[in-house]
Automatic annotation (TrEMBL):
<feature type="signal peptide">
    <location>
        <begin position="1"/>
        <end position="27"/>
    </location>
</feature>
<feature type="transmembrane region" description="Helical">
    <location>
        <begin position="41"/>
        <end position="65"/>
    </location>
</feature>
<keyword id="KW-0472">Membrane</keyword>
<keyword id="KW-1133">Transmembrane helix</keyword>
<feature type="transmembrane region" description="Helical">
    <location>
        <begin position="102"/>
        <end position="123"/>
    </location>
</feature>
<feature type="transmembrane region" description="Helical">
    <location>
        <begin position="135"/>
        <end position="155"/>
    </location>
</feature>
<dbReference type="Pfam" id="PF04657">
    <property type="entry name" value="DMT_YdcZ"/>
</dbReference>
<protein>
    <recommendedName>
        <fullName>EamA domain-containing protein</fullName>
    </recommendedName>
</protein>
<dbReference type="InterPro" id="IPR006750">
    <property type="entry name" value="YdcZ"/>
</dbReference>
<feature type="transmembrane region" description="Helical">
    <location>
        <begin position="77"/>
        <end position="96"/>
    </location>
</feature>
<keyword id="KW-0812">Transmembrane</keyword>
<keyword id="KW-0732">Signal</keyword>
Length: 172
């Protein structure tokens, strides 16, 4: 039988795994709607619009109190950067997933996240407590980059299905 304490410890890990598990579908969906609408930016716009509507609905259903915007306006400039970076990620997913595949895109995203996170920890940026670089952390980054090469490697003998394009022969 699971204890409440064990559930509270496991739940964040399970939710983080679930969040990661849905990303390939988000990237593929954004790319597909972008193709259907004629441009990857429309895919990003659609994704962010639907996301906004879902968050607004959750705020209303959960009756979350109206925030004190004054406190946020008095904070550092980087409090607002999340929306810009989120839009960049969603647009990048819509544009790059068709070219790299879901696995290729996401393994590069993870590599970028880890490299940036290790540097952010080292320098203690954006209010993070400093965690200095160590040989183990650098080795972890190198292993992740090796994983990128293994997942995205171009040495396979069969072309990727998404990379195959039909060439129309001229008539006559």
């Amino acid at each position: 039988m699971f204890s409440k304490t064990l559930c509270l410890l496991v739940l964040p890990f399970a939710l983080a795994l679930l969040a990661g598990a849905v990303l390939p579908f988000q990237a593929a969906g954004n790319a597909a709607v972008g193709r259907a609408l004629g441009h990857w930016l429309w895919g990003a716009f659609t994704s962010l619009t639907v996301s906004s509507l879902v968050v607004i609905a959750a705020l209303l259903i959960l009756r979350v109190p109206v925030p004190d915007l004054g406190k946020a306006l008095q904070g550092p400039w980087w409090l607002w950067v999340g929306g810009v970076l989120g839009a960049m990620y969603v647009a990048g997913a819509a544009a790059l997933t068709p070219k790299l595949g879901a696995a290729g895109f996401l393994v590069l995203v993870v590599a970028g996240q880890i490299i940036t996170a290790v540097l952010a920890d080292h320098f203690g940026v954006m209010g993070l407590g400093g965690k200095p670089l160590s040989l183990a952390r650098v080795a972890g980054v190198v292993l992740i980059l090796c994983g990128v090469l293994l997942v995205q490697g171009t040495w396979s003998t069969a072309p990727a299905t998404s990379a195959i394009t039909a060439v129309k022969q001229p008539e006559g």
